[in-house]
Amino acid sequence: MNITKRQLRRIIREERRKVLAEQPIGPEQGQHMQADTDALIVADAIQYAVFDALEELGVDADQADRIIQALDGRVDLMREALKNALYDYHRKLKMSGDRPKPRNV
What we know:
Layout: H1 5-21, H2 27-57, H3 61-71, H4 75-95
Helix pairs in contact: 1-2
């Protein structure tokens, strides 16, 4: 049976979440750990989204090097892109009555 990279990533995320969920914790600590877990899942999703986008665009090694150089030290640019995505999601939630999609991770 063959699985795709995307399927493998999803399996890894699900297993990581299960392991973290099995750890005994108090209610307050549980909310904090949930936020930390969600942040890790978002960070993983960003990494995979960038990889998939580069692959879909057909970026070769030289182009990848130029992109790396262009982004090196541009934490401000990356922070702004991330912040915009978070604000866009927040705005979407407000428009939909604060109802997120069901969790699938």
